[in-house]
UniProtKB/TrEMBL annotation:
GO CC field: plasma membrane
Gene3D superfamilies in the cross-refs: Hydantoin permease
NCBIfam families noted in UniProt: ncs1
Annotated coiled-coil segments of the chain: none
Segments crossing the lipid bilayer: 51-74, 80-98, 127-152, 172-190, 202-220, 240-261, 282-306, 326-351, 363-382, 388-415, 440-461, 485-505
Protein name (record): NCS1 family nucleobase:cation symporter-1
Localization per record: Membrane
Length: 512
């Protein structure tokens, strides 16, 4: 490594990665702690396989498995649903790689990266929004994982476990399973990011093998791949299809719009830009598409065997006539759910809550806060209704987070050309302090972009019944035409407005 002359406070490696010089002290506990400061280059060891395994581990989960079912329920055939998922993940890969660049180059997590555009204090706005979204997802996935433990217990202990007395509408054994899975996740994450890397390395191939094994069993049992593959689309390829396709596409993009923001939390450990870019390009769109295709094939086979399509892999596994196969399958579901929930829904809010109060909240405490919030908000009802799940939850979240992605990309790539004054990301009074720690231009772009993205959100009406919490005519009726394109509208409008404001009313110290 060789030091650069301006500024002398940083060290630059031959490949462009940057770290703080050894004599730089970030001792202002309002904005720094050991979990938020840049990762030293020597400790950035994640390679292409690590990033590939990360995405395989996160993509192979029950929520991904059932994405295609939601699209089929909306009238698509299996080819249309898998195509929609594939296109969405190619699109969302772009902001994932763009925002991941800053993590690898500077070794910083998402909330610190957001300080460049939002300000040292203003970064808490997008960070807390991202954190709360993750808490909801954490609750959903923990309930799913608890369901797998509950099913395992039913197979292992018999009917008394499954038919235990109810508390709050569910058997007490279901609640116990939920609590056990919650504890397992917390134990893994408090051991740190290196433990997560090792866990993802072996969990990823195990889950894929399990999914292929389930496909083989269903194919043999059904004597083929089943009738689902032959069912025609209820929408065709005309105007009816496109009316569903675009909001569904935004919903599928919304599925990983969260990671498109906080991907620096992982890429900060990257050994090179090539490793993070190649690993993610190989991992995200391919595994999401393949896993969704596996889900369609297995579900089609289940329709031939049981007379009705079974999209929930836990329910399907409990119907296997082989006890050992059932137990192994449910264990793999547990690993899959554990893999995605820790990586996607605990790491980010742990850093985000730490960024809020660095002096008192470190990564581990942030993870515990995430776990508590993920339980008390009871978010799993979203998962039970495909229409609400895709159009309400994923579209709304995707639209809102798309605005943040647009601002981050505009600031880092268009305005700063990937150059950040690393020490000043932690220093009040520096160029990222703006006005009292807030960049009003970023906040304005976020509010306007968010309003355009989700202001027209509406609920569909089926047989005279409104499906969802929004008015049928939209929250703001004249914005309703934009609602089906929420993520794209949010990202594009926030990006353009932020660049315009920074050019028209530039901060005093904008130049790097």
């Amino acid at each position: 490594m060789s030091t650069t002359a301006p500024p002398p406070s940083i060290v630059t490696a031959d490949d462009g990665r940057i770290e703080l010089a050894a004599d730089v002290l970030l001792d202002d506990t309002r904005f720094a702690n050991p979990d938020l400061t840049p990762v030293p280059i020597a400790k950035r060891r994640w390679n292409t396989y690590n990033f590939l395994a990360l995405w395989v581990g996160m993509s192979h989960n029950i929520a991904t498995w059932t994405l295609a079912s939601g699209l089929v329920a909306l009238g698509m055939d299996w080819k249309q649903s898998v195509l929609t998922i594939a296109i969405a993940n190619v699109v969302v890969l772009v902001p994932v790689i763009l925002n991941g660049h800053a993590g690898t180059r500077y070794g910083i997590p998402f909330p610190v990266f957001a300080r460049a555009s939002f300000g040292l204090r203003g970064a808490n706005l997008p960070a807390l929004i991202r954190a709360l979204v993750a808490c909801v997802w954490f609750g959903i996935q923990t309930w799913i994982g608890g369901g797998a433990i509950y099913a395992l217990g039913g197979k292992a202990f018999g009917s008394w476990w499954a038919n235990a007395s109810a508390i709050g509408g569910e058997p007490w054994t279901q609640w116990l399973s939920f609590a056990v899975f919650w504890v397992i996740q917390v134990v893994v994450i408090v051991r740190g990011m290196d433990t997560l890397r090792r866990f993802e390395n072996w969990a990823a191939p195990l889950v894929l093998v399990g999914a292929v094994g389930l496909l083989i069993w269903v194919g043999v049992k059904a004597g083929g791949l089943g009738p689902l593959l032959h069912q025609p689309s209820k929408l065709g390829w005309g105007s009816d299809f496109w009316k569903v396709f675009f909001p569904a596409l935004m919903g599928m993009i919304g599925f990983w719009s969260t990671l498109s923001l906080n991907i620096p939390d992982f890429t900060r450990f990257g050994g090179s830009q090539r490793a993070q870019a190649r690993g993610q390009a190989l991992g995200l769109p391919t595994t999401m598409t393949i896993f969704s295709l596996l889900a369609v094939l297995v579900t089609s086979g289940s329709q031939a065997i049981f007379g009705t399509p079974i999209w929930d892999p836990v329910e399907l596994l409990t119907k296997l006539d082989n006890l050992a196969g059932t137990l192994v399958g449910l264990f793999i579901v547990l690993i899959a759910t554990l893999s995605v929930n820790i990586a996607a829904n605990v790491v980010s809010p742990a850093y985000d809550f730490s960024n809020l109060i660095p002096k008192h909240v470190n990564f581990r405490r942030g993870a515990l806060i995430t776990g508590v919030i993920g339980v008390v908000i009871f978010p799993w009802k979203l998962y039970s209704n495909p229409d609400v799940y895709i159009f309400t939850w994923l579209d709304t979240v995707g639209g809102l987070l798309g605005t943040v992605a647009g601002i981050l990309i505009a600031d880092y790539w268009i305005l700063r050309r990937t150059r950040l004054a690393l020490p000043e990301l932690y220093e009040p009074g520096g160029r990222y302090w703006y006005a009292g720690g807030w960049n009003w231009r970023a906040v304005t772009a976020f509010v306007v972009g968010g309003l355009l993205a989700i202001g027209g959100s509406y609920s569909s009406v089926s047989d005279g019944v409104k499906q969802g919490p929004f008015p049928a005519d939209g929250l703001i009726p004249f914005l309703k035409p934009l609602a089906d394109y929420g993520w794209a509208v949010g990202l594009g409008s926030a990006l353009v407005l932020y660049v315009a404001l920074m050019k028209l009313v530039p901060p005093e110290r904008q130049e790097i």
